[in-house]
Design a protein that fits this description.
The protein is mainly β and 189 residues long. It has one domain (2-188): Porin. It contains one helix and ten strands; from the N terminus they run H-E-E-E-E-E-E-E-E-E-E. It has one helix spanning 2-16; strands at residues 29-39, 44-55, 60-71, 74-88, 93-110, 113-131, 136-147, 149-161, 166-175, 178-188. It has a ten-stranded antiparallel barrel. Strand 5 and strand 6 (113-131) form a beta hairpin. It starts with a helix and ends with a strand.
Length: 189
């Protein structure tokens, strides 16, 4: 079901992108966001996220994504770090592939006792980024994270640029373990 959602989103993005002006996605940016996660076997937790990308060349970039979520006695931190490759499919659409290191840390306090579990592993991500207009970017990714437990998600998002350097972000990630929603601001450089 998730693969159909990703395929439908990619087709919708691809259909809209030829309408865009001559714009390409930026690979040097910093996002600050509020994050809320509905855990399958737990509470809804929220917190903040900081993620960014640094363009290394026309086709290479480096990404860092950090999320820190908590509620009452549950704390969850997730970090993804690694290189990315972007290939232009047109003036407005890029195919993006990323892979790297993943770290998940879960802390739970019960009856006055703290327990934490930290797992290191890998992540992989593939999808499309494209500009619907000079002000609107849409993206869709399939992400796989193997840090302790493995999980695959469908990630959909967009950025509406208020100015060429400042945009408003909205993202959703759907997996069997959790649905994660992010909203924030992007600073493009």
């Amino acid at each position: 079901m998730q693969k159909r959602t990703l395929a439908s989103t990619i087709l919708a993005i691809t259909a809209l992108l030829p309408l865009a002006a001559n714009a390409a996605p930026s690979y040097t940016y910093l996002d600050l966001s509020y994050v809320s996660a509905d855990l399958e076997d737990g509470p809804t937790i929220d917190g903040f996220g900081i993620d960014g990308s640094l363009r290394l060349s026309n086709e290479l970039h480096f990404v860092v994504d950090y999320q820190s979520l908590s509620k009452n006695d549950v704390d969850l931190d997730l970090i993804l770090v690694g290189p990315g490759y972007n290939q232009s499919l047109s003036d407005t659409v890029d195919l993006v592939v990323r892979a790297g290191w993943a770290r998940a840390e879960l802390g739970v306090e019960r009856n006055g006792r703290n327990s934490s579990n930290t797992d290191n592993g890998l992540f992989g991500q593939a999808g499309l980024r494209g500009m619907v207009s000079e002000q609107l970017e849409l993206n869709g990714f399939l992400t796989y994270i193997d840090a302790g437990d493995s999980t695959a998600s469908v990630d959909l998002g967009g950025v509406y640029f208020l100015t060429p350097a400042i945009g408003v972000t909205l993202d959703a990630s759907f997996s069997d373990d959790a649905n994660v929603y992010r909203g924030g601001v992007r600073f493009a450089f």
